[in-house]
Amino acid sequence: MSAGLPPDDRTIAAIATARGRGALALVRIAGPATRTIAATLLHPSPTVPRHATRCVVRGADGEAIDDVVATLYAAPHSFTGDDLLEISTHGGLVAPTAVLAAAISAGAQEAMPGEFTRRAVLNGRLDLLQAEAVGDLIDARSGAAQRAALRQLDGGLSRRVADLRQRVLRLEALLAYDIDFPEEDDGPVPRARVHEATAELLGALGALLATRAQSTLVHEGALVVLAGAPNVGKSSLFNALLGEARAIVTEVPGTTRDAIEAVLDLPGYPLRLVDTAGLRETTDLVERLGIETSARYLSHAAVVLVCGDSAATLAAAVTAVRAAGAAELVTVRTKCDIAANSNASREIVAISNEVPVDVHVSAQTGAGLRTLLDAVEARVARAHGMPAADAPALTSARQHAAVGMAHHELRAFEQAWRDDALPPSIAAIHVRAAADALGALIGAVQVDDVLDVVFASFCVGK
Ligand SMILES: Nc1nc2c(ncn2[C@@H]2O[C@H](COP(=O)(O)OP(=O)(O)OP(=O)(O)O)[C@@H](O)[C@H]2O)c(=O)[nH]1
Ligand SMILES: [Mg+2]
């Protein structure tokens, strides 16, 4: 990473779009030499900011490289805060690479991953939490994750953290008063007020910490595993839920050998749906490995869809899944379109005392699929609550660690204050540490290695 690099005197360039075949690609240039490079590279060169200019890119030898549309953004009104040029080139592998090479030979330097966003932070265009939101938005695999990242980019979490930090600073000010006027017995600052302010802050920090589990689910999806005996219709159900033929389906038991994963994008939490090899005793090595994989997934699942096409297969599957340590089960009676199955309702009633059937489904007709998804969502929500639509949430380990640190320091202060264990001036050091932890989160206290952590996973051109 670029620790120690002079932040602003390089003019950086990169292809901002993903490599591969496509209609267009975007080459970005930012830094003090942007206009000079544009004048060398582009004919005619755009001079009016925020106007799309159609022009030809020419190399050092004057030869035309591509026919492009270029837009200049003048400092400080650009993404990075300095002069920035965006060139829409033709897509594919050759045109954008040739335009980037021409920009570099005209004086630009190749950007490092995340360097544009890093510069936006250094120039005060984004704070660190918003910069992380840019990364989250790029990595989003579901609508829910995308919406959460957009909210964070809008500054919701930044405002929440800044507000909490202000409150910690006010507490620190209260203490400073107390330290300055110690002789005033129960002084100008009643001890109860400090207790109250600390307790409120601890509550607010705790609530923010609790959002981490939800946002992990929003980003990664709740793990939902289909399990059951071979041939009961797990892969068919998996395909029906996804609306596409992802897993192979045959009438031969033991068809699925390995776990197959796909994301089902639901409005609340996305589901990481996993089809597994049927659970049974087997001597086939490959199948046994597949079954061991199933067991591993089962122990991590948020919800297991235990499938059976008869009372007996369902009951046996529930026993096997429970033995694998799975927590939340939804029992699914499959193939309910087959007359024999629906006529077997008496048999279902008979086992319902022991293994109640939650949902009857047919992969063939689609019956019960909506009910099944509702049941899954209800189980996930019961365990984790639904993600609040507008509430800011912690989305990275860095954020969680920083808020956790602030909470820890404040708790240490609370204890010392309550027990009168430390002189107020020493106890107040914990409060300062809590404020610093929150400050580092939004970049109010800017440290280079914090920047490195944030931008380590970024792609080039962002
Ligand atoms: N009528 C009917 N047949 C189904 C239904 N679901 C699955 N089948 C049939 O049942 C057989 C087994 O289906 P699969 O989806 O491969 O079953 P599986 O549980 O994944 O089996 P393994 O991968 O071997 O563990 C196939 O012949 C399917 O066509 C259903 O809802 N209705
Ligand atoms: Mg299968």
Tell me what you see in this structure.
The chain folds into three domains: 115 residues, 2-Layer Sandwich (Gyrase A, domain 2); 115 residues, Four Helix Bundle (Hemerythrin (Met), subunit A), CATH 1.20.120.430; 164 residues, Rossmann fold, CATH 3.40.50.300. Strands 3-4-5-6-2-1-7 form a seven-stranded mixed beta sheet. Strands 9-10-8-11-12-13 form a six-stranded mixed beta sheet, sandwiched between helices. Helices cover 48% and strands 15% of the residues. Strand 1 and strand 2 form a beta hairpin. The N terminus is likely disordered. It contains 16 helices and 13 strands. The chain is flat and about 75 Å long. It is of the alpha/beta class and 462 residues long. The chain binds guanosine-5'-triphosphate (GTP) and magnesium ion (MG). The site of guanosine-5'-triphosphate has 23 residues, from helix 8.
Secondary structure layout plus pairing:
Elements: E1 12-15, E2 24-30, H1 34-41, E3 42-43, E4 53-58, E5 64-73, E6 84-90, H2 94-105, E7 109-110, H3 115-122, H4 128-139, H5 143-153, H6 156-180, H7 191-220, E8 222-228, H8 234-242, E9 260-264, E10 271-275, H9 285-300, E11 303-308, H10 311-323, E12 329-333, H11 339-343, H12 345-352, E13 359-360, H13 369-384, H14 397-419, H15 424-442, H16 448-455
Parallel strand pairs: 1-7, 8-10, 8-11, 11-12, 12-13
Antiparallel strand pairs: 1-2, 2-6, 3-4, 4-5, 5-6, 9-10
